[in-house]
Amino acid sequence: MTEWLKEAGKPENISIVPGNHDAYVPGAYEKTTKAWYPYMRSERGPAEWNEGFHCYPYLRVRGPVALIGCSTAVATPPFAASGYFGSRQAQETVNLLRAAGEAGLFRVVMIHHPPIRGATSLHKRMLGIRRFAATITAGRRRTGAAWTYAPEHGLFA
């Protein structure tokens, strides 16, 4: 399942997010996340993936760029390929966006499903489009939060 990914490059050089194809049936999402975890691991995440750990959103800092990976992958009924962006992930994404902004980093949010209404047919849409838009807007605002970027460690404290 990960051979092609290993051939593509090292986990520290490749960042991925899952999509609906990685969660077609119950249990597939967990298997995919476990197999691909090194490519989706946040600098603050545990070294090894464990069940129950929410690895999304994740943050990786590469030079002046903050890569924030979100997941919209959910198991869907046959012939559906929709995704979902939930409230827990939204709030954590806001926090990461704000922290990265305060650190002066260029922020890139990676997400599988298009976050634009009408960009795909109804059976392929992302549920939570308004929530995602509000997340991006809220994450762009400056805050007085006390975040410190430690480049020698590649993480926020």
Structure description:
It is a single chain. The chain has 157 residues and is α/β, with parallel strands linked by helices. It has helices at residues 3-8, 28-40, 87-102, 129-140; strands at 58-62, 65-69, 83-84, 106-110, 126-127, 149-150, 155-156. The protein has one domain (3-156): Metallo-dependent phosphatases (Purple Acid Phosphatase, chain A, domain 2). 30% of the residues lie in helices and 15% in strands. The strands form three sheets. A three-stranded mixed sheet has the order 1-2-4, covered by helices on one side. Strands 3-5 form a two-stranded parallel sheet. The chain has a two-stranded antiparallel ribbon with strand order 6-7. The longest helix has 16 residues, at 87-102.
CATH topology: Purple Acid Phosphatase, chain A, domain 2
Quick one: overall form?
Answer: globular
Instruction: Report Rg.
Output: 16 Å
Helix/strand order, N-terminal first? HHEEEHEEHEE
Average pLDDT metric: 84
Tell me the span between the first and last alpha carbons: 34 Å
In short:
30% of the residues lie in helices and 15% in strands. By secondary structure, the protein is of the alpha/beta class.
List the helices and strands and how they pair.
Layout: H1 3-8, H2 28-40, E1 58-62, E2 65-69, E3 83-84, H3 87-102, E4 106-110, E5 126-127, H4 129-140, E6 149-150, E7 155-156
Parallel strand pairs: 2-4, 3-5
Antiparallel strand pairs: 1-2, 6-7
Helix pairs in contact: 3-4
